[in-house]
Write a structure and sequence with these properties.
About 35% of the residues lie in helices and about 30% in strands. The chain contains 13 helices and 16 strands. The protein is globular, with a radius of gyration of 21 Å. Strands 1, 2, 6, 7, 8, 9, 15 and 16 form an 8-stranded mixed β-sheet that branches. An 8-stranded mixed β-sheet has the order 3-5-4-11-12-13-10-14.
């Protein structure tokens, strides 16, 4: 079958959840994925830190978890350290994404792997899609193909502003479990900050898995002068050098992360979800749960508008659901992000608050404006 109600471009968390929900609601659904997922999925440059609530919600098997986490250590390069407690997990995105895609297929969605989209155009009320293998038609399109979304580029949607993009570098380092436990702690992830001496607008990280450390660095793209040199500066920090001593690099990969919304999230039966829409936490870069929720909400909007015969309201319904659930918070965090990275003083103030408050609470209650450094220390 090549004619579908809904075609989803991209088999990441957002696309897979959208496909699962669509299939469960009776829509003929196809996922087009340019890569081969294989037995263990396909590699994704991502730290993979996930809240334990999400692990519980989707019944993610514990034997697929890279490492259970109990605390987040926040390091400023001048020596200040802050600790944020809370249970979470570090997952391999290849395994996590494959788990969600399998759920979508089990629900009735058709997965077409190694299908690179070549063209998309609207003809009457349908979209025609050409891949390197087939031609398809669909009533609705879900763009779940990442920050550079070829789907939205072909449809002439505007791209992100440079100040809303983070360039990241990820290295996967093979080491031993005992080394990780000794240097990083058996249940801790580490973030590194420093506006003047490390990263102007962003942070770096060490995310431990079983016998691997995901090493990452990210800076606002228009402020990057020499990414490899700036990344190397992070690797030379004493704490980092010790953790990576005698480790072996297996993967080196740059990647873009959006930290601000696209100027539009819907147009003419096309939905942008997850990274494609910039639906990401602007402070932490966390995107997995927002991708999954936005995928579900796109299908919820379609179902609601079809049942009420109000397809002209699709965009407002979709963005209304997003706004009610979390979009207002993400917009507030985007404003807070600019304030945090104005100075190291502001950054430390935020890190101190973040120890005991969710970043959403800090943003929505303007805690940065209400507490002075004197009161914190």
């Amino acid at each position: 079958m090549k004619n579908f109600d809904i075609i989803i471009i991209g088999a990441g968390p957002g696309g897979s959840v959208a496909a699962k929900v669509a299939s469960e609601n009776g829509y003929s659904t196809c996922i087009l994925e340019k890569e081969t997922l294989g037995e263990k999925g396909r590699y994704k440059a991502c730290g993979g830190a996930t809240a334990w609530e999400l692990i519980d919600e989707i019944n993610y098997p514990e034997d697929k978890i890279g490492r259970v986490i109990e605390s987040l250590e926040l390091h400023h390069v001048d020596g200040e350290t802050y600790s944020k407690k809370g249970k979470g997990a570090v997952v391999w995105r290849s395994t996590f994404d494959k788990f969600l895609t399998d759920m979508a297929v089990d629900s009735g969605a058709l997965l077409k792997e190694k299908e690179l989209m070549i063209n998309i155009e609207k003809v009457d009320t349908f979209y025609n899609i050409s891949t390197n293998r087939e031609k398809y038609t669909a009533k609705y399109i879900i763009a779940a193909d990442g920050v550079t979304s070829p789907t939205l580029k072909l449809l002439n949607w505007p791209f992100f502003k440079s100040e809303d993009l983070i360039l990241t570098i990820t290295q996967e380092m093979k080491t031993t479990k005992s080394n990780i436990d000794k240097t990083l702690g058996h249940d801790t992830v580490h973030l590194f900050f420093g506006i003047e001496s490390l990263i102007r607008v962003g942070y770096a990280w060490l995310f431990p898995k079983t016998e691997r450390i995901t090493v990452g660095w990210g800076n606002q793209i228009n402020l990057v002068k020499n990414s490899r040199e700036e990344f190397r500066k992070f690797l030379e920090l004493p704490f980092v050098k010790l953790a990576l001593k005698n480790s072996t690099m297996e993967i080196f990969k740059p990647h873009l992360i959006p930290v601000g919304l696209r100027s539009k999230l819907y147009e003419d039966k096309v939905f942008a979800i997850g990274d494609s829409g910039g639906i990401v936490d602007p402070i932490s870069g966390k995107g997995i749960p927002y991708a999954m929720m936005s995928g579900q909400f796109a299908i919820d909007a379609i179902k609601t508008c079809e049942e009420k015969d109000k397809l002209d309201k699709l965009g407002s319904i979709y963005e209304g659901i997003l706004d009610n659930k979390f979009l207002r918070v993400l917009k507030a965090k985007r404003i807070l992000r600019d304030k945090i990275f104005q100075s190291d003083e502001n950054l430390k103030k935020f890190l101190s608050l973040w120890e005991n408050h969710r970043s959403s609470v800090i943003a929505m209650k303007n805690l940065m404006d209400q507490v002075s450094l004197y009161e914190i220390y």
